[in-house]
């Protein structure tokens, strides 16, 4: 075996030992793969397998499948990996193509239900041609990923029970989201007049304690204002507030004031 023929350094064999150690370390480093070449990161954001999943989801839509099990699975990893990437990069497609339009819609739908008008607006902002957008949205509607009627029904049920909104306020919210007028009427028509009356009574009952100690006219205006802001008709609001104040007087032992003056002509106070 060949030996080093050079003169020994000041450290003798110990110096050669350190030198050979460095050589072994250098040899070891040469076999480590270049991670930057294997995982280029965001240099090619449309080339990853998660993006292929997104395209597969968009191309393989079937009627009867819900949003969660069709679009959510394909976009979960892609969304986490490609946060901040462009919509074209997310789908691996050129801007304005059907692939890019599908990726935009699927990404929005995974975060929550959307109306057709909302998705159309999003595509328009991203400069997707109208013809391409119409084709994609029609396909999504065909397979049930867009359903304005179901959206409207769910919106009415949720917002009425959670926020106490009346039909007038609910109709305004649905129109703002682009729901067709016929679907708006059908959805809010699911609320019966008795439903509105019962909810209005609960809203007033919750606010009664906060108004005690104020003059009766001020209390009446404040309570009617609460109902007015939630879309209740002035006549119904006056009826509910008058009933609540009369019931409070009957339950107490104080002066019984005539409250017949509380009517739909009474201005609601904006203070809550």
Description:
- The chain has 14 helices and no strands.
- With 272 residues, the chain is mainly α.
- Among the domains are: 68-143, no CATH class; 148-188; 193-251.
- Helix 6 (98-110) crosses helix 8 and helix 12 (193-211) packs across helix 14 (234-251).
- The termini are far apart.
State which percent range the strand residues make up: under 5%
Return Rg in Å.
Answer: 34 Å
Order of helices and strands: HHHHHHHHHHHHHH
Uncertain regions: pLDDT < 50 for 5+ in a row? Answer: 17-89
| Mean model confidence by pLDDT | 73
Coarse shape: elongated
- Strand runs, count: 0
Largest sheet: none
Number of helices: 14
User: What is the helix content?
Assistant: 55-70%
Q: How would you sum up this structure in a few lines?
A:
The chain has 272 residues and is mostly helical.
Layout of helices and strands:
Blueprint: H1 13-29, H2 35-38, H3 49-59, H4 67-81, H5 87-91, H6 98-110, H7 116-125, H8 130-143, H9 148-163, H10 167-176, H11 181-188, H12 193-211, H13 216-229, H14 234-251
Question: What attributes characterize this protein structure?
Answer:
mainly alpha, 272 residues, elongated, 0% strand
């Amino acid at each position: 075996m060949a030996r080093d023929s050079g003169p020994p350094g000041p450290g003798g064999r110990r110096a050669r030992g350190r030198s050979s150690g460095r050589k072994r370390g250098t040899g070891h480093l040469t076999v480590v793969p270049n991670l930057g070449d294997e995982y280029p990161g965001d240099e090619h954001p449309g080339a990853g397998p998660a993006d292929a999943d997104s395209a597969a989801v968009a191309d393989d839509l079937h009627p009867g499948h819900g949003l969660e099990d069709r679009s959510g699975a394909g976009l979960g990893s892609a969304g986490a990996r490609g946060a901040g990437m462009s919509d074209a990069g997310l789908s691996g497609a050129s801007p304005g193509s059907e692939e890019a339009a599908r990726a935009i819609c699927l990404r929005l739908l995974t975060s929550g239900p959307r109306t057709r008008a909302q998705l159309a607006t999003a595509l328009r902002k991203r400069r997707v041609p109208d013809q391409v957008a119409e084709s994609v949205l029609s396909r999504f509607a065909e397979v049930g990923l867009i359903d304005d009627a179901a959206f409207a029904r769910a919106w009415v049920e949720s917002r009425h029970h959670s926020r106490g909104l009346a039909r007038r306020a609910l109709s305004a919210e649905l129109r703002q989201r682009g729901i067709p007028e016929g679907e708006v009427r059908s959805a809010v028509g699911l609320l019966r007049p008795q439903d509105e009356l019962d909810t209005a009574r609960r809203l007033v009952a919750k606010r009664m304690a906060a108004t005690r100690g104020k003059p009766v006219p001020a209390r009446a205006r404040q309570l009617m204002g609460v109902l007015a802001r939630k879309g209740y008709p002035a006549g119904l609001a006056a009826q509910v507030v008058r009933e609540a104040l009369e019931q409070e007087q009957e339950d107490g032992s104080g002066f019984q004031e005539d409250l017949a003056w509380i009517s739909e002509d009474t201005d609601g106070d904006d203070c809550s």
